[in-house]
Write a structure and sequence with these properties.
Elements (H helix, E strand, L loop, with lengths): L2 H13 L2 H11 L1 H12 L5 H35 L3 H5 L5 H33 L7 H23 L5 H19 L8 H12 L7 H7 L6 H23 L6
Helix pairs in contact: 1-6, 2-6, 3-4, 3-6, 4-6, 4-7, 4-8, 4-9, 4-10, 6-7, 6-11, 7-9, 7-11, 9-11
């Protein structure tokens, strides 16, 4: 087994303990429960619009990012807490392999929760009158969001001891308040790239108006989303490698 694969598998196992699976699994179901609750009250202004504004947007802007920032920060944070980082960096393993494997592991676990939440949400949408044709679009968009935030916060977690706090502040305050209020910042909003990918992949029968509100001017493009994701992953791995080379004595 290569060093990359060994660290990747260990990271996935580390981030997939029973407590996290239960906690993040329940959190991923929140938009689904909201959609089902609305269906019981019969207070739909329009099923597709309610799906976009009240379920998909919160799912991609809060649920998936918060999950990813916590898991991404824990990829190195758990090593620091358990004082095992020194054993890892002192082994004859390339630092880039360590950072890349940690990033891939965090992104894989975060994406698994994102896809699970997408499956549940689309299932609820089908039950209340929609269909399953939107599943690929939502799953891809959620995976884009999970991967971007995981990569960024694996890096943050290698620098800050309280990366979870930094991440939650970023998601709720920076993205949720500052970016929301400044129209020029909307196109650089990380989660909106995933929403743009989702909208671009939606079947032609799904009305665009259901997602145009949360997009706030971001161009719906799967190509742009994938390019941004690849760029963010490459840059964060490069920076993380440089920083890890300076922690050999940890």
């Amino acid at each position: 087994m290569t060093a990359f694969r060994a660290i990747f598998v260990a990271t996935v196992q580390q981030l997939s303990d029973r407590r996290r699976v239960l906690g993040f699994g329940v959190m991923a179901l929140a938009p689904t429960l909201l959609l089902l609750a609305l269906s019981r009250t019969g207070q739909f202004d329009g099923l597709d619009t309610d799906l976009g504004m009240l379920a998909v947007a919160p799912f991609l802007s809060m649920i998936v990012p918060i999950t990813a920032v916590i898991l991404g920060g824990a990829a190195f944070g758990d090593e620091r807490r358990d004082k095992t980082l020194s054993f890892l960096v002192l082994r004859p393993i390339r630092r880039v392999d360590v950072v890349a494997a940690k990033t891939a592991g965090a992104a894989a676990v975060s994406s698994a929760f994102a896809v699970f939440g997408s499956l549940a949400l689309v299932g609820a949408y089908a039950v209340v009158g929609g269909d399953f044709t939107i599943l690929p679009a939502l799953a891809v968009g959620a995976t884009v969001v999970a991967t971007i935030y995981s990569a960024v916060f694996v890096l943050v977690g290698s620098v800050f001891a309280r990366s979870t706090l930094v991440g939650v502040i970023y998601v709720l305050f920076v993205e949720g308040v500052m970016v929301e209020e400044v129209s020029r910042l909307h196109p650089v909003s990380l989660w909106r790239q995933g929403l743009g990918a989702t909208m671009d992949l939606m079947p032609g029968t799904f009305p665009a108006r259901a997602l145009l509100g949360p997009l706030r001017g971001t161009v719906p493009s799967i190509e742009n989303a994938l390019l941004l994701t690849a760029g963010v992953v490459a840059v964060t791995i490069a920076l993380g490698t440089v920083l890890l080379r300076r922690t050999d004595s940890v």
